[in-house]
Amino acid sequence: MTERTERPAVDIPALAEPGRLRSLTDTGLDAAPDEAFDRFARLVSDLLDVPVALVSLVSETRQFFPGAVGLPDPWAELRQTPLSHSFCQHVIDTEIPLVLPDARLYPRVRDNLAVPELGVVAYAGMPLTDLDGRVLGSLCAIDSKPRAWTKAQLHTLADLAAACSSELRLRIALDAAESARRLAEQAHERLGLLASLSEALAGTLDVETAVARLADAVVPLLADWAMVTLVDQGGTPRWVTAVHRDPARAAEVTRFGEVALDRLGPASITRTVLRTGQPVLRGVADLADVRQASDAPELVALAERLGFASHLTVPVPTPGRGAVMGVVTLVNGPDRRAFDDDDLGTALEIGRRAGQAVGNGWIYGEQRHVAEVLQHSMLPQLPQIPWVELVARYQPAADRVEVGGDWYDAFVQPDGDLIAAIGDVAGHDIEAAATMGQLRNLVRGNAYGRGDPVDELMRRLDATISGLRIPTAATAVLARLRPTPDGVAVTWCNAGHPAPLLVTAGGDVRLLDGRREPLLGLTRPVPRTGAEVLLGPGDTLLLYTDGLVERRDQPIDEGMGQLCERVAAAGARPTAELCDLLLGTGQRREDDVALLAVRAR
Hints:
Largest sheet: 6 strands, antiparallel
Number of domains: 3
Low-confidence stretches: 1-8
Strand order of the largest sheet: 3-2-1-6-5-4
Protein name: GAF domain-containing protein
InterPro entries: Bact_Sigma-Reg (IPR052016), GAF (IPR003018), GAF-like_dom_sf (IPR029016), PPM-type-like_dom_sf (IPR036457), PPM-type_phosphatase-like_dom (IPR001932)
Keywords: Hydrolase
GO molecular function: phosphatase activity
């Protein structure tokens, strides 16, 4: 390798700003490929027609590239450079875009080693920021020859940088959540007695599972038997879980919990703790406490058989609200030592942690319910048409709230034509789903009742997104289907989306190679063209989102090739069975998947 002359780094105080470096670390990114950011680099390279495009993040001592296209060796393998080779550090310094038609003419960068060693001549870099506006790096386009950057190119680069910043912020937010979980676990580890409980609660967001694990963790470690009681929104006890150390007593302790839930009186310790939020400790107790709690004689008999000599009850506080969502009751029989103040302190910590676990479970359940309702409300009811069969599937990514930006649609025009569409809005949250709903409605509003070619409909969609200033980066395929004497005529237009797949009745499989044009939502107008194909009886058109074919560890073209092989190997199957087969790989998917199959009858 040619020996490089190291030049002193430029003095840029912002590079060492602690908050910026903390955000940089919280992205979890390093000098390694990341498919999401490689995708941004590919988009920059394709849309701006440049040989090199980078998602560059800058630390105190280096810049590294989680997204990169076109870097020369050895930098393509290293995925990083020292600051002596960095233009992007100046974007951090000024906090504004850096646009250079010919870097060799600018004193600030003309001696930068990126010019001779990376071939950087023309450079355009847009800031990449965290939620607080701190610049972490830049999304940059690079050419090895002088170039006059156009206004449209810079607008496109700015739009992509905004989307790339959103992805960085998501990574930071996810890291913050992960850091909070780690801190909680460390706190648990400091209390050896609570380690098993902490580990059990950290493994679920399901409320019933969390409560069951809580009861199992404290028995027999802390008590002979225990009950966890939760209340409804009105403060009335509604759910109870009871566990005994002796498996032979399981039915009796379960019955005790059921009777206690139904027959607790206002003077019971459970209701007192729920009302006051203050714990109650009885180091020495007898069955009089049970008689005072309820008028059910059965409860006293059950308590005597279960063992009742000492007990304590602590609140389960609602995090951040000062309210009580339940109580934890620990009971020891006569053969075990009485509870004391140390046990009370441990039990209070149990109650606090239970509140966090149950509270998170409730929040997660509410979010999941909202997400499911939102998602399913936006997935349409497919029409019944005599000349085609329509089957659709939606599958969320693994371990994620069931919501995202993938969508499909199909509706019949007044003239009898069928409009079919599929698309993908960037993001995996309720905001992405809401934008997806807007986009799907725009497709319907723009297309319904119009006989325009699909490329014209796609151009109108571009104009509507731009005119209404809908902040989105999305891909889509829009198709019009019409019955003919020879089959079903299909015309389609592709805006940056994976190519449709044609499966003939005879089993042949091929990707439809119509032109894949720029994605939707760009600020400048882009040309749109249509393509045509004829479906014979039994032929199937498959429209799908990239979650079906995209993996972090392989190019998308390889994934599409594998999809074709799987479809071919499936042979002749009913449409619904084929769709289920394609989604049922058993692999953990990294992205949501939407699938729409259209089979000519």
